Amino acid sequence: xxxxxxxxxxxxxxxxxxxxxxxxxxxxxxxxxxxxxxxxxxxxxxxxxxxxxxxxxxxxxxxxxxxxxxxxxxxxxxxxxxxxxxxxxxxxxxxxxxxxxxxxxxxxxxxxxxxxxxxxxxxxxxxxxxxxxxxxxxxxxxxxxxxxxxxxxxxxxxxxxxxxxxxxxxxxxxxxxxxxxxxxxxxxxxxxxxxxxxxxxxxxxxxxxxxxxx
Length: 214
Fold this sequence. Notes:
The chain is built from 6 helices and 2 strands, in the order αααββααα. The protein has helices at residues 18-28, 32-53, 61-77, 115-135, 142-169, 180-213, and strands spanning 92-95, 109-112. The chain is elongated and about 65 Å long. It starts with 17 loop residues before the first helix and ends with a helix.
């Protein structure tokens, strides 16, 4: 039986999204009705971040859905707000996923005032959690094999996307876990594991046919 691996999650420090977003909203939108609507949206985004990255996540599809929802919201708000050190400044701090950077070396954590950095780290956790969900599947049945293949493929895609975008989103060297070389390697490993699961599924079907014929 093949040996599969999963990827640990990155951990982040708490960030108050409400105050800086509210300050910007109140300075930009003068209509009281508009302000109230946008402030409530900022509060909901803050709650969503706490659910997505502010607590331990179960190795379950429902936890992955929370991460995906938060990532989608980040993509939606990015073009609407001037996130930068000189305008709407929000600093996000994330630790290296691999035990204080010991696996690959490099810095333990990185703090950046960059929404692109936050997106990259959340995307890393999407890939990591998908790999953990796949790893937990029972590969002795067809449903487990299908689920494992699905989530190893999702993990591969998430890590590959970071490889293609992370350097353009940051203005300094990232921690080693999200460096292009590392996430590129992780993407290939996850893809290889998905292919291995497909092979196991195919061979299990062949063996079942043989036993039926026998």
